[in-house]
Amino acid sequence: MKAKPRGIPVVKKFFRETPEGIEVIASRCSRCGSYFFPVKKVCPHCLDETMEEVPISGKGTLISFSVSYDGLRGIKPPYAFGYVKLKEGFMLFSLLTDCEPFEEKLKIGMPVEMVIEEMGEDFYGNVLYTYKFRPSEDQS
After folding, report:
1. How would you class 65 by CB atoms within 10 Å of its CB: exposed for 0-12, middle for 13-18, buried for 19 or more?
2. What is the pTM of this model?
């Protein structure tokens, strides 16, 4: 789930650099235990302000998906994308990877795991990262 950073800044709202690599972070309410992504300063459920930033597990279930045969800028078709419900309880919309042929490898309800990949560079040469999900054998 972690990618090795190349000594460049990352978007602090979504990612955090650690000695082991880059991880995706969420916030967890200290009062009610709810998780939120992106990070929030106040809990939308109980309005408590004691939120802590925590790495997400990256483990989840594929809720829905689609395959596009028409490319977006920077993404070579065909590619798959969908909604993943994470163990923490929230859903993310994401590209799916390592899942071709799509009709054989992707199934609604299947376990998936997060991977972090470089997606390019910004105008200043900083590496930009994204998260994607891939099929997983791990049912935990």
Report:
1. buried
2. 0.83
